[in-house]
# Entry
Amino acid sequence: MVENNPSKPILIVDDEMSWIVTLRTALRLLGKITHIVSCTESQTVPSLLATNEYSLVLLDLTMPNVSGEELLDYIGERHPELPVIIISGANQVATAVNCMKKGADDFLIKTDDLERIVNSVKKILRTQELKEEHRKLSESLAARPRQRNAAFDHIITRNQTMLGIFSYLEAIALSREPVLVQGESGTGKELIVQALHQLSCPTQPFIAVNVAGLDDVLFSDTLFGHQVGAYTGANQPRRGMIEEAAGGILFLDEIGDLSQSSQVKLLRLLQSGEYFPLGCDTPLLCRARIIAATNQNLEKKEAAGTFRRDLLFRLKTHRVTLPALRERHEDIPLLVDYFISEAIHQLGKKRPGDNPDLISLLQSYSFPGNHRELRAIIYDAVSLHHTGPLSIDRFADIISKDKLSSPVSESTTFLPPESAFIFPEHLPTLKQMSQLLVDEALRRTGGNQSHAARFLGITQQALNRRLKGKF
# Structure
Protein backbone atom coordinates (compact mmCIF):
# COMPACT_ATOMS: atom_id res chain seq x y z
CA MET A 1 0.00 0.00 0.00
CA VAL A 2 1.38 3.44 -0.97
CA GLU A 3 0.70 5.79 1.95
CA ASN A 4 -3.12 5.71 2.41
CA ASN A 5 -3.92 4.45 -1.07
CA PRO A 6 -6.00 1.24 -0.74
CA SER A 7 -5.38 -1.82 -2.91
CA LYS A 8 -9.10 -1.94 -3.75
CA PRO A 9 -10.73 1.29 -4.95
CA ILE A 10 -13.09 3.54 -3.01
CA LEU A 11 -16.53 3.86 -4.65
CA ILE A 12 -18.20 7.30 -4.51
CA VAL A 13 -21.94 7.23 -5.30
CA ASP A 14 -23.54 10.66 -5.78
CA ASP A 15 -25.78 12.19 -8.45
CA GLU A 16 -23.90 15.53 -8.25
CA MET A 17 -20.74 15.40 -10.34
CA SER A 18 -19.51 18.68 -8.84
CA TRP A 19 -19.49 17.12 -5.36
CA ILE A 20 -17.71 14.01 -6.65
CA VAL A 21 -14.97 16.23 -8.12
CA THR A 22 -14.66 18.14 -4.82
CA LEU A 23 -14.45 14.92 -2.80
CA ARG A 24 -11.95 13.27 -5.13
CA THR A 25 -9.74 16.35 -4.97
CA ALA A 26 -9.88 16.43 -1.16
CA LEU A 27 -9.04 12.73 -0.90
CA ARG A 28 -6.08 13.20 -3.25
CA LEU A 29 -4.66 16.35 -1.68
CA LEU A 30 -5.41 15.73 2.02
CA GLY A 31 -5.31 11.94 2.15
CA LYS A 32 -2.99 10.96 -0.71
CA ILE A 33 -5.80 8.66 -1.91
CA THR A 34 -6.16 8.33 -5.67
CA HIS A 35 -7.59 4.83 -6.13
CA ILE A 36 -11.18 6.03 -6.57
CA VAL A 37 -14.15 5.04 -8.73
CA SER A 38 -17.25 7.24 -9.01
CA CYS A 39 -20.85 6.60 -10.00
CA THR A 40 -23.67 9.10 -10.64
CA GLU A 41 -26.38 6.55 -11.48
CA SER A 42 -27.44 4.89 -8.23
CA GLN A 43 -29.36 2.09 -9.98
CA THR A 44 -26.08 0.71 -11.39
CA VAL A 45 -24.49 0.21 -7.96
CA PRO A 46 -25.66 -3.44 -7.49
CA SER A 47 -24.02 -4.48 -10.77
CA LEU A 48 -20.83 -2.61 -9.85
CA LEU A 49 -20.65 -4.40 -6.51
CA ALA A 50 -21.33 -7.75 -8.15
CA THR A 51 -18.46 -7.42 -10.63
CA ASN A 52 -15.80 -5.53 -8.65
CA GLU A 53 -14.33 -5.38 -5.15
CA TYR A 54 -14.16 -2.11 -3.22
CA SER A 55 -12.51 -1.10 0.03
CA LEU A 56 -15.19 1.45 0.99
CA VAL A 57 -18.39 3.09 -0.32
CA LEU A 58 -19.04 6.83 0.10
CA LEU A 59 -22.80 7.04 -0.37
CA ASP A 60 -25.03 10.07 -0.90
CA LEU A 61 -28.37 9.76 0.87
CA THR A 62 -30.69 11.66 -1.49
CA MET A 63 -30.57 10.47 -5.11
CA PRO A 64 -33.14 9.83 -7.85
CA ASN A 65 -34.05 6.28 -8.93
CA VAL A 66 -32.55 4.43 -5.93
CA SER A 67 -31.99 6.31 -2.67
CA GLY A 68 -28.88 6.02 -0.56
CA GLU A 69 -30.91 4.44 2.24
CA GLU A 70 -32.14 1.71 -0.12
CA LEU A 71 -28.56 1.07 -1.26
CA LEU A 72 -27.43 0.92 2.38
CA ASP A 73 -30.00 -1.82 2.99
CA TYR A 74 -28.81 -3.67 -0.12
CA ILE A 75 -25.14 -3.46 0.84
CA GLY A 76 -25.90 -4.56 4.40
CA GLU A 77 -27.69 -7.65 3.11
CA ARG A 78 -25.59 -8.63 0.08
CA HIS A 79 -22.14 -7.20 0.98
CA PRO A 80 -22.10 -6.89 4.79
CA GLU A 81 -18.29 -6.93 4.89
CA LEU A 82 -18.11 -3.68 2.87
CA PRO A 83 -17.81 -0.44 4.95
CA VAL A 84 -20.16 2.44 4.09
CA ILE A 85 -19.92 6.14 4.92
CA ILE A 86 -23.13 8.13 4.40
CA ILE A 87 -22.57 11.71 3.19
CA SER A 88 -25.81 13.67 3.32
CA GLY A 89 -26.72 17.16 2.24
CA ALA A 90 -28.95 17.61 5.31
CA ASN A 91 -28.11 17.34 9.01
CA GLN A 92 -30.95 15.14 10.30
CA VAL A 93 -30.32 13.38 13.59
CA ALA A 94 -33.09 10.79 13.20
CA THR A 95 -31.85 9.86 9.73
CA ALA A 96 -28.29 9.59 10.95
CA VAL A 97 -29.29 7.30 13.85
CA ASN A 98 -31.34 5.13 11.48
CA CYS A 99 -28.43 4.76 9.03
CA MET A 100 -26.01 3.83 11.81
CA LYS A 101 -28.48 1.18 13.03
CA LYS A 102 -28.56 -0.23 9.51
CA GLY A 103 -24.81 -0.68 9.53
CA ALA A 104 -23.31 2.57 8.22
CA ASP A 105 -19.82 3.11 9.58
CA ASP A 106 -20.16 6.89 9.71
CA PHE A 107 -22.64 9.66 8.89
CA LEU A 108 -21.20 12.96 7.62
CA ILE A 109 -22.61 16.20 6.22
CA LYS A 110 -21.47 17.73 2.93
CA THR A 111 -21.00 21.03 4.68
CA ASP A 112 -18.53 19.45 7.12
CA ASP A 113 -14.87 20.34 6.97
CA LEU A 114 -13.40 18.28 4.11
CA GLU A 115 -10.52 17.28 6.34
CA ARG A 116 -12.99 15.61 8.71
CA ILE A 117 -14.44 13.59 5.84
CA VAL A 118 -10.96 12.53 4.68
CA ASN A 119 -9.97 11.55 8.24
CA SER A 120 -13.07 9.36 8.53
CA VAL A 121 -12.13 7.63 5.26
CA LYS A 122 -8.54 7.09 6.44
CA LYS A 123 -9.71 5.71 9.78
CA ILE A 124 -11.98 3.12 8.16
CA LEU A 125 -9.31 2.13 5.63
CA ARG A 126 -6.86 1.64 8.49
CA THR A 127 -9.40 -0.55 10.32
CA GLN A 128 -9.79 -2.68 7.20
CA GLU A 129 -6.02 -2.94 6.91
CA LEU A 130 -5.73 -4.10 10.54
CA LYS A 131 -8.41 -6.74 9.95
CA GLU A 132 -6.44 -8.05 6.98
CA GLU A 133 -3.24 -8.08 9.02
CA HIS A 134 -5.06 -9.99 11.76
CA ARG A 135 -6.29 -12.53 9.22
CA LYS A 136 -2.78 -13.06 7.85
CA LEU A 137 -1.37 -13.32 11.38
CA SER A 138 -3.95 -15.96 12.30
CA GLU A 139 -3.08 -17.97 9.20
CA SER A 140 0.63 -17.66 9.99
CA LEU A 141 0.10 -18.83 13.57
CA ALA A 142 -2.01 -21.72 12.37
CA ALA A 143 0.82 -22.92 10.12
CA ARG A 144 3.49 -22.61 12.83
CA PRO A 145 4.21 -25.68 14.99
CA ARG A 146 3.77 -24.92 18.68
CA GLN A 147 3.67 -26.72 22.00
CA ARG A 148 0.20 -28.10 22.57
CA ASN A 149 -2.00 -26.18 25.02
CA ALA A 150 -3.68 -28.11 27.85
CA ALA A 151 -7.06 -26.86 26.58
CA PHE A 152 -6.78 -29.47 23.80
CA ASP A 153 -5.95 -32.44 26.04
CA HIS A 154 -9.42 -33.94 25.50
CA ILE A 155 -8.96 -33.94 21.69
CA ILE A 156 -6.99 -36.93 20.43
CA THR A 157 -5.00 -36.14 17.30
CA ARG A 158 -1.61 -35.82 15.68
CA ASN A 159 -3.09 -34.68 12.37
CA GLN A 160 -1.40 -31.53 11.06
CA THR A 161 -4.68 -29.91 9.99
CA MET A 162 -6.07 -30.34 13.48
CA LEU A 163 -2.89 -29.01 15.07
CA GLY A 164 -3.14 -25.97 12.78
CA ILE A 165 -6.71 -25.44 14.00
CA PHE A 166 -5.43 -25.50 17.59
CA SER A 167 -2.97 -22.72 16.78
CA TYR A 168 -5.71 -20.70 15.09
CA LEU A 169 -7.97 -21.04 18.14
CA GLU A 170 -5.17 -19.78 20.36
CA ALA A 171 -4.76 -16.77 18.06
CA ILE A 172 -8.46 -15.80 18.25
CA ALA A 173 -9.06 -16.79 21.88
CA LEU A 174 -9.15 -13.21 23.23
CA SER A 175 -11.30 -11.85 20.40
CA ARG A 176 -14.95 -11.18 21.25
CA GLU A 177 -16.09 -11.63 17.65
CA PRO A 178 -18.33 -14.58 16.65
CA VAL A 179 -16.87 -17.92 15.56
CA LEU A 180 -18.40 -20.35 13.05
CA VAL A 181 -17.41 -24.01 13.43
CA GLN A 182 -18.26 -26.25 10.47
CA GLY A 183 -17.77 -29.95 9.90
CA GLU A 184 -19.59 -33.20 9.28
CA SER A 185 -21.60 -34.83 12.06
CA GLY A 186 -19.34 -36.61 14.51
CA THR A 187 -16.16 -34.60 13.81
CA GLY A 188 -16.04 -33.06 17.30
CA LYS A 189 -17.41 -29.54 16.81
CA GLU A 190 -18.52 -29.17 20.42
CA LEU A 191 -15.12 -30.37 21.65
CA ILE A 192 -13.51 -27.57 19.66
CA VAL A 193 -15.92 -25.01 21.13
CA GLN A 194 -15.20 -26.28 24.64
CA ALA A 195 -11.47 -25.95 23.96
CA LEU A 196 -11.98 -22.34 22.85
CA HIS A 197 -13.89 -21.72 26.08
CA GLN A 198 -10.95 -23.07 28.08
CA LEU A 199 -8.56 -20.85 26.14
CA SER A 200 -10.58 -17.65 26.43
CA CYS A 201 -12.68 -17.63 29.61
CA PRO A 202 -12.42 -20.92 31.55
CA THR A 203 -13.95 -19.51 34.76
CA GLN A 204 -16.96 -18.01 32.97
CA PRO A 205 -20.19 -19.75 31.87
CA PHE A 206 -20.43 -22.07 28.87
CA ILE A 207 -24.05 -22.35 27.69
CA ALA A 208 -24.96 -24.63 24.77
CA VAL A 209 -28.27 -24.34 22.90
CA ASN A 210 -29.33 -26.62 20.03
CA VAL A 211 -31.46 -24.32 17.88
CA ALA A 212 -32.67 -27.05 15.50
CA GLY A 213 -36.43 -27.36 15.72
CA LEU A 214 -36.95 -24.15 17.73
CA ASP A 215 -39.74 -22.03 16.30
CA ASP A 216 -39.39 -18.26 16.33
CA VAL A 217 -41.14 -17.69 19.68
CA LEU A 218 -39.26 -20.50 21.43
CA PHE A 219 -35.97 -19.27 19.97
CA SER A 220 -36.62 -15.75 21.30
CA ASP A 221 -37.77 -17.03 24.69
CA THR A 222 -34.77 -19.36 25.02
CA LEU A 223 -32.14 -16.78 24.07
CA PHE A 224 -33.68 -13.53 25.26
CA GLY A 225 -35.91 -14.64 28.16
CA HIS A 226 -39.22 -13.01 29.09
CA GLN A 227 -40.99 -10.90 31.67
CA VAL A 228 -44.14 -11.83 33.55
CA GLY A 229 -47.16 -11.50 31.26
CA ALA A 230 -45.12 -11.52 28.05
CA TYR A 231 -47.51 -14.19 26.73
CA THR A 232 -50.20 -16.51 28.05
CA GLY A 233 -48.69 -18.74 30.71
CA ALA A 234 -45.67 -16.52 31.39
CA ASN A 235 -46.33 -16.37 35.13
CA GLN A 236 -42.68 -16.17 36.14
CA PRO A 237 -39.83 -14.13 34.66
CA ARG A 238 -37.19 -16.11 32.80
CA ARG A 239 -33.53 -15.28 32.27
CA GLY A 240 -32.52 -15.95 28.68
CA MET A 241 -29.47 -17.99 27.75
CA ILE A 242 -27.69 -14.79 26.68
CA GLU A 243 -27.93 -13.51 30.24
CA GLU A 244 -26.95 -16.91 31.65
CA ALA A 245 -23.82 -16.90 29.46
CA ALA A 246 -22.78 -13.33 30.37
CA GLY A 247 -19.00 -13.02 30.41
CA GLY A 248 -18.61 -16.46 28.83
CA ILE A 249 -19.66 -18.30 25.70
CA LEU A 250 -23.09 -18.93 24.20
CA PHE A 251 -22.81 -21.91 21.85
CA LEU A 252 -25.55 -22.15 19.19
CA ASP A 253 -25.46 -25.61 17.67
CA GLU A 254 -27.13 -26.61 14.37
CA ILE A 255 -27.30 -22.95 13.32
CA GLY A 256 -28.06 -24.00 9.73
CA ASP A 257 -31.57 -25.05 10.81
CA LEU A 258 -32.51 -21.61 12.14
CA SER A 259 -35.72 -20.19 10.67
CA GLN A 260 -35.64 -17.02 8.57
CA SER A 261 -37.40 -14.92 11.22
CA SER A 262 -35.02 -16.14 13.93
CA GLN A 263 -32.08 -15.39 11.64
CA VAL A 264 -33.19 -11.75 11.55
CA LYS A 265 -33.27 -11.59 15.35
CA LEU A 266 -29.85 -13.17 15.68
CA LEU A 267 -28.47 -10.75 13.06
CA ARG A 268 -29.80 -7.76 15.04
CA LEU A 269 -28.18 -9.14 18.18
CA LEU A 270 -24.81 -9.49 16.46
CA GLN A 271 -25.05 -6.06 14.82
CA SER A 272 -26.12 -4.01 17.81
CA GLY A 273 -24.99 -6.14 20.74
CA GLU A 274 -28.43 -5.56 22.31
CA TYR A 275 -31.58 -7.63 22.73
CA PHE A 276 -35.09 -7.31 24.14
CA PRO A 277 -36.51 -9.97 26.48
CA LEU A 278 -40.10 -10.82 25.49
CA GLY A 279 -42.48 -8.28 26.99
CA CYS A 280 -39.68 -5.77 27.69
CA ASP A 281 -39.18 -2.38 26.00
CA THR A 282 -35.73 -1.76 27.47
CA PRO A 283 -32.79 -3.29 25.59
CA LEU A 284 -30.20 -5.35 27.46
CA LEU A 285 -26.55 -5.59 26.52
CA CYS A 286 -25.24 -8.93 25.28
CA ARG A 287 -22.07 -9.76 27.22
CA ALA A 288 -21.60 -13.29 25.87
CA ARG A 289 -19.42 -14.34 22.95
CA ILE A 290 -21.47 -16.11 20.26
CA ILE A 291 -20.10 -19.31 18.75
CA ALA A 292 -22.17 -21.20 16.18
CA ALA A 293 -21.75 -24.66 14.68
CA THR A 294 -23.29 -26.56 11.79
CA ASN A 295 -22.80 -29.68 9.68
CA GLN A 296 -24.41 -27.94 6.70
CA ASN A 297 -22.88 -25.91 3.88
CA LEU A 298 -24.10 -22.41 4.72
CA GLU A 299 -22.75 -20.97 1.47
CA LYS A 300 -25.04 -23.32 -0.48
CA LYS A 301 -27.96 -22.43 1.79
CA GLU A 302 -27.23 -18.74 1.27
CA ALA A 303 -27.15 -19.23 -2.51
CA ALA A 304 -30.48 -21.06 -2.28
CA GLY A 305 -31.98 -18.18 -0.30
CA THR A 306 -32.55 -20.13 2.94
CA PHE A 307 -29.76 -18.50 4.97
CA ARG A 308 -29.12 -14.77 5.13
CA ARG A 309 -25.85 -13.60 3.62
CA ASP A 310 -25.45 -10.75 6.12
CA LEU A 311 -25.87 -13.18 9.02
CA LEU A 312 -23.38 -15.59 7.48
CA PHE A 313 -20.76 -12.84 7.24
CA ARG A 314 -21.40 -11.80 10.83
CA LEU A 315 -21.09 -15.36 12.12
CA LYS A 316 -17.90 -16.24 10.27
CA THR A 317 -15.71 -13.38 11.47
CA HIS A 318 -13.59 -16.28 12.71
CA ARG A 319 -14.09 -19.64 11.03
CA VAL A 320 -13.01 -23.23 11.70
CA THR A 321 -13.66 -26.17 9.37
CA LEU A 322 -12.96 -29.58 10.90
CA PRO A 323 -11.60 -32.39 8.71
CA ALA A 324 -13.51 -35.67 8.49
CA LEU A 325 -12.05 -38.82 10.04
CA ARG A 326 -11.32 -40.24 6.58
CA GLU A 327 -8.88 -37.32 6.19
CA ARG A 328 -7.14 -38.20 9.46
CA HIS A 329 -5.87 -41.77 8.93
CA GLU A 330 -2.94 -41.18 11.27
CA ASP A 331 -5.40 -40.55 14.12
CA ILE A 332 -7.25 -43.87 13.81
CA PRO A 333 -4.73 -45.91 15.88
CA LEU A 334 -4.87 -43.28 18.64
CA LEU A 335 -8.67 -43.15 18.64
CA VAL A 336 -9.01 -46.94 18.57
CA ASP A 337 -6.74 -47.23 21.61
CA TYR A 338 -8.67 -44.50 23.43
CA PHE A 339 -12.12 -45.95 22.68
CA ILE A 340 -10.98 -49.46 23.68
CA SER A 341 -9.71 -48.10 27.02
CA GLU A 342 -12.96 -46.20 27.54
CA ALA A 343 -15.08 -49.24 26.63
CA ILE A 344 -13.29 -51.78 28.85
CA HIS A 345 -13.55 -49.36 31.78
CA GLN A 346 -17.30 -48.86 31.31
CA LEU A 347 -18.08 -52.50 30.46
CA GLY A 348 -15.77 -54.07 33.05
CA LYS A 349 -13.85 -56.07 30.44
CA LYS A 350 -10.21 -57.11 30.21
CA ARG A 351 -8.15 -55.32 27.61
CA PRO A 352 -8.06 -57.31 24.35
CA GLY A 353 -4.78 -58.16 22.66
CA ASP A 354 -3.47 -56.12 19.73
CA ASN A 355 -4.55 -56.96 16.20
CA PRO A 356 -2.41 -55.13 13.58
CA ASP A 357 -4.85 -56.06 10.79
CA LEU A 358 -7.60 -54.13 12.57
CA ILE A 359 -5.99 -50.72 12.01
CA SER A 360 -5.39 -51.46 8.30
CA LEU A 361 -9.02 -52.46 7.91
CA LEU A 362 -10.36 -49.35 9.69
CA GLN A 363 -8.08 -47.05 7.70
CA SER A 364 -9.60 -48.44 4.50
CA TYR A 365 -13.09 -47.31 5.59
CA SER A 366 -14.57 -43.86 4.90
CA PHE A 367 -16.45 -43.52 8.23
CA PRO A 368 -19.47 -41.44 7.17
CA GLY A 369 -20.32 -41.12 10.87
CA ASN A 370 -16.76 -40.02 11.75
CA HIS A 371 -15.57 -40.37 15.38
CA ARG A 372 -19.05 -41.19 16.64
CA GLU A 373 -19.28 -44.16 14.29
CA LEU A 374 -15.79 -45.42 15.17
CA ARG A 375 -16.64 -45.26 18.88
CA ALA A 376 -19.87 -47.20 18.34
CA ILE A 377 -18.06 -49.93 16.37
CA ILE A 378 -15.37 -50.27 19.05
CA TYR A 379 -17.92 -50.47 21.86
CA ASP A 380 -19.89 -53.12 19.98
CA ALA A 381 -16.79 -55.24 19.41
CA VAL A 382 -15.56 -54.89 23.00
CA SER A 383 -18.96 -55.87 24.39
CA LEU A 384 -18.76 -59.18 22.45
CA HIS A 385 -15.09 -59.83 23.24
CA HIS A 386 -13.96 -62.65 25.56
CA THR A 387 -10.27 -63.51 25.11
CA GLY A 388 -7.38 -62.75 22.77
CA PRO A 389 -7.36 -59.90 20.23
CA LEU A 390 -10.57 -58.23 19.10
CA SER A 391 -12.22 -60.27 16.37
CA ILE A 392 -11.62 -58.51 13.09
CA ASP A 393 -14.56 -60.34 11.52
CA ARG A 394 -17.03 -58.22 13.46
CA PHE A 395 -15.49 -55.01 12.09
CA ALA A 396 -15.27 -56.39 8.55
CA ASP A 397 -18.93 -57.42 8.61
CA ILE A 398 -20.07 -53.95 9.73
CA ILE A 399 -17.87 -52.14 7.22
CA SER A 400 -18.69 -54.38 4.25
CA LYS A 401 -22.44 -54.15 4.96
CA ASP A 402 -22.19 -50.38 5.10
CA LYS A 403 -20.31 -50.28 1.80
CA LEU A 404 -22.94 -52.48 0.15
CA SER A 405 -25.89 -50.54 1.55
CA SER A 406 -24.54 -47.02 0.97
CA PRO A 407 -26.24 -45.31 -1.99
CA VAL A 408 -24.00 -44.13 -4.80
CA SER A 409 -23.83 -40.34 -4.97
CA GLU A 410 -22.08 -37.84 -7.18
CA SER A 411 -19.31 -37.54 -4.61
CA THR A 412 -18.74 -41.29 -4.22
CA THR A 413 -15.16 -42.25 -5.08
CA PHE A 414 -14.51 -45.96 -5.40
CA LEU A 415 -10.78 -45.55 -5.98
CA PRO A 416 -8.46 -43.17 -4.14
CA PRO A 417 -6.56 -40.52 -6.12
CA GLU A 418 -3.39 -42.62 -6.36
CA SER A 419 -5.40 -45.43 -7.98
CA ALA A 420 -7.48 -43.23 -10.28
CA PHE A 421 -7.30 -43.89 -13.97
CA ILE A 422 -8.88 -42.69 -17.20
CA PHE A 423 -10.32 -45.14 -19.67
CA PRO A 424 -8.17 -45.39 -22.82
CA GLU A 425 -9.61 -45.17 -26.27
CA HIS A 426 -10.29 -48.92 -26.17
CA LEU A 427 -12.22 -50.02 -23.08
CA PRO A 428 -10.62 -52.72 -20.90
CA THR A 429 -12.20 -56.15 -20.94
CA LEU A 430 -14.39 -57.37 -18.10
CA LYS A 431 -11.56 -59.69 -17.03
CA GLN A 432 -9.16 -56.77 -16.87
CA MET A 433 -11.65 -54.68 -14.88
CA SER A 434 -12.20 -57.58 -12.47
CA GLN A 435 -8.46 -57.78 -11.91
CA LEU A 436 -8.31 -54.03 -11.20
CA LEU A 437 -11.04 -54.40 -8.56
CA VAL A 438 -9.32 -57.38 -6.96
CA ASP A 439 -6.01 -55.52 -6.84
CA GLU A 440 -7.68 -52.48 -5.27
CA ALA A 441 -9.49 -54.57 -2.64
CA LEU A 442 -6.22 -56.24 -1.66
CA ARG A 443 -4.46 -52.89 -1.50
CA ARG A 444 -7.12 -51.42 0.79
CA THR A 445 -7.02 -54.40 3.15
CA GLY A 446 -3.26 -54.70 3.29
CA GLY A 447 -3.29 -57.99 1.37
CA ASN A 448 -5.83 -59.70 3.67
CA GLN A 449 -7.76 -61.98 1.32
CA SER A 450 -10.62 -62.64 3.74
CA HIS A 451 -11.40 -58.92 4.11
CA ALA A 452 -10.85 -58.23 0.42
CA ALA A 453 -13.38 -60.92 -0.44
CA ARG A 454 -15.94 -59.27 1.83
CA PHE A 455 -15.40 -55.91 0.11
CA LEU A 456 -15.91 -57.55 -3.30
CA GLY A 457 -19.01 -59.43 -2.18
CA ILE A 458 -17.59 -62.86 -3.02
CA THR A 459 -16.33 -65.82 -1.00
CA GLN A 460 -12.69 -66.19 -0.12
CA GLN A 461 -12.57 -69.35 -2.26
CA ALA A 462 -13.87 -67.39 -5.26
CA LEU A 463 -11.20 -64.76 -4.67
CA ASN A 464 -8.52 -67.47 -4.50
CA ARG A 465 -9.64 -68.82 -7.86
CA ARG A 466 -9.45 -65.34 -9.38
CA LEU A 467 -5.98 -64.82 -7.98
CA LYS A 468 -4.90 -68.11 -9.52
CA GLY A 469 -6.36 -67.04 -12.87
CA LYS A 470 -9.22 -69.56 -12.79
CA PHE A 471 -12.08 -67.26 -13.71
